[in-house]
Amino acid sequence: MAEYENKDRKCECWKCELSGKCAYKDKFQRLPDELGKCAKLPKNSGKLKY
Length: 50
Known about the structure:
By secondary structure, the chain is largely without helices or strands. It has one domain. The chain contains no helices and no strands.
């Protein structure tokens, strides 16, 4: 399976190879500061644990 890159920023967790250990998998992100909590996004590089 190819590595999921999340280029479109849709956070489709079921496609990601980290989904088994990601703390943000399928979490409801309703507040603006919670949106985009994905370790694959450039803004979160090295900041979020999965």
